[in-house]
Amino acid sequence: MDPLYEALEPEQATEVSQLARVMYEAREHRRQILEEYHTDDPAELLARVAALAAAGEAEHPAYEHYLAVCILDDTRNAARTLMAARLKNEEAEFDLPPSPHLVLNEMLEAQGETLLGGPRVLRQDALLLTLRNGVELTVHYATPAAYSLRWKTPDGAELGIDTAPGHRALHNGPQHLHRADGSVADDPLTRPGLPPWQNLRAVIEALLDDPLLNRLQ
Prior knowledge:
Elements: H1 3-6, H2 10-36, H3 42-54, H4 62-87, H5 100-111, E1 121-122, E2 127-130, E3 136-143, E4 146-152, E5 158-162, E6 176-178, E7 184-186, H6 196-209
Antiparallel strand pairs: 1-2, 2-3, 3-4, 4-5, 5-6, 6-7
Helix pairs in contact: 2-4, 3-4
């Protein structure tokens, strides 16, 4: 047995082992994402996203990858903090903010029967949903001000709402809508800073009514 675990009670050792696994997987996933862009700096990746958007080029999925890195960093830091407490045999009485994805998953568990048509898939860096009308929605929520909600309709159209920087022609803020035809417009549904569930609920309800958001254009 690893000496790290010998002084721990069995339950503690199991939890510490699980936390170590979470930290390892988050670190490796983060590394793989950033290696794709030949950098180890998330800020550099975000700068590239902004440059792509400003040049009128597709900034996706680079922005989702940036958000994933931020989410993975938060996951690893939370696991590290909790592990430190467990190794000291302390209770986890921290003021750690809950992961937006965990909060959204809990809200959907409580209310999702009226919204969803399939199981929720909670990954370390994303939340995958199938709505009642067959729309497939992928949620990347790093913070209340940094998010991407992208969906595919049963007919194969792809749209999204996100807060990627660089779209200078927008009027309402960084949040914007990518229409099915590839054009970009002001986002009619979400606002950065609002509780993630409020934004996600607004998007889901709109997509259940009109997956292409034609009536909101």
